[in-house]
Amino acid sequence: MGDAARLLMNDWPCDDGEEYMAAVKACVDAITGKIAPEQFREVLLRAADEAGIRTLSLVPQGMGERRPGLLPIMRS
After folding, report:
1. Which among 25, 38, 64, 75 would be 20 to 30 A from 16, CA to CA?
2. pTM above 0.85?
3. CA-CA-CA-CA torsion for 47, 53, 58, 63, nearest 10 degrees?
4. How far, CA to CA in Å, does 17 sit from each of 6, 47, 51, 58?
């Protein structure tokens, strides 16, 4: 969580959006154990979307459902 806090405070491209403010609060809540890390992740992803930051989510093999239309990343 410390890295996320530093990112939000020092490197975030804008600091006035509603989702950004929610992410800052959620980060504090996650650090203090008031919310689960997964809940913070969802708030952070919304803030990233608001700021125009592209995100990449990786799901470990065997987790979640396979959805039609999504192609696996091929490794060489």
Report:
1. 38
2. no
3. 30
4. 17, 8, 8, 26
* Integer Rg of the chain from CA: 15
Q: Per residue in 10-50, pLDDT tens?
A: 999 998 999 999 999 999 999 999 999 999 999 999 999 99
> What count of other Cβ atoms lies within 10 Å of the Cβ of residue 59?
10
Tokens of 7: 């990112």
Give residue limits of the domains in the chain: 2-51
Nearest to 5 by CA among 44, 33, 49: 44
d(CA 16, CA 37): 23
Q: Is 12 helix (H, G, I), strand (E, B) or coil?
A: coil
For the chain, how many residues are written? 76
